[in-house]
């Protein structure tokens, strides 16, 4: 699986199909996690990145909703959004 985050956020599957996650929040979440490939990103940092302008939308529940949407987008792949004490992460190689 390969990802593109410059320009349109794109995901290229093993079968060569190219897709783009639906919704700006999901695309932003994916981009932040990809920029930190394999490393945990704290919930506070993700909330700040996703909801910088609208502080009312920037709650842990709003972040969890975006994570759930991203997980649905990735369900047909071998990837998942992991969660642990350090935050959220995508277990991928930075070269992807």
What would you say this structure looks like, in words?
The protein is α+β, with helices and mostly antiparallel strands and 96 residues long. It has three helices and five strands; from the N terminus they run βββαααββ. The strands form two sheets. A three-stranded antiparallel β-sheet has the order 1-2-3, with no helix packed on it. A two-stranded antiparallel sheet has the order 4-5. The chain is globular, with a radius of gyration of 13 Å. The mean pLDDT is 83.
Q: What does this entry show, briefly?
A:
This protein is of the alpha+beta class.
Task: Furnish the topology, listing elements before pairings.
Blueprint: E1 2-4, E2 10-12, E3 18-19, H1 24-35, H2 43-50, H3 60-73, E4 81-84, E5 87-90
Antiparallel strand pairs: 1-2, 2-3, 4-5
Helix pairs in contact: 1-3
């Amino acid at each position: 699986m390969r990802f593109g985050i410059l320009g349109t956020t794109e995901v290229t599957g093993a079968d060569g199909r190219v897709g783009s996650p639906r919704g700006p929040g999901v695309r932003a979440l994916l981009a932040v996690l990809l920029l930190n490939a394999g490393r945990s990103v704290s919930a506070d940092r993700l909330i700040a990145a996703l909801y910088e302008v609208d502080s009312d939308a920037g709650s842990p529940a709003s972040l969890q909703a975006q994570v759930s949407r991203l997980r649905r987008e990735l369900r047909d792949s071998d990837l998942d959004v992991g969660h642990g004490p350090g935050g959220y992460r995508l277990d991928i190689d930075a070269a992807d």
